[in-house]
Amino acid sequence: MARAATSNPRTKDDTDPRDPAKDLDSEIAALREDVAAITATLGDIVKYRTGEAKTEVRKIRRRVEREGEEALEQVQDSFEAAESELKASIREKPITSVLIAAGIGYVISKIL
């Protein structure tokens, strides 16, 4: 029995403009472009925000350094004032100062 040659209406050479697969391919390509654009935009946002954060951290660091230096100067001034008062007290009452120092030394020796 001989078979009659049948023609397949759907061959690779057939280009039907209404083919939904063609639409799907173009939509996928568009989605890929959109995802690439979103990725690039997100990368730019991250870079910008990182730059902002670095700038803010630098400002905070400078402020903290300045405040720390001011606090250190205040403590140094307080110690210098206390030292001056102690020296003046020792000059005014040398015997009392020696006895107090001896008493403190004795207490510390008993503790250790």
TrEMBL record:
Biased composition (Basic and acidic residues): 10-24
Keyword Coiled coil: yes
Keywords: Coiled coil
Chain intervals for the UniProt region annotation (Disordered): 1-24
Domain of life: Bacteria
Coiled coil residues, start to end: 65-92
Identification of the protein by name: Membrane-anchored ribosome-binding protein, inhibits growth in stationary phase, ElaB/YqjD/DUF883 family
Species of the source: Pelagibacterium luteolum
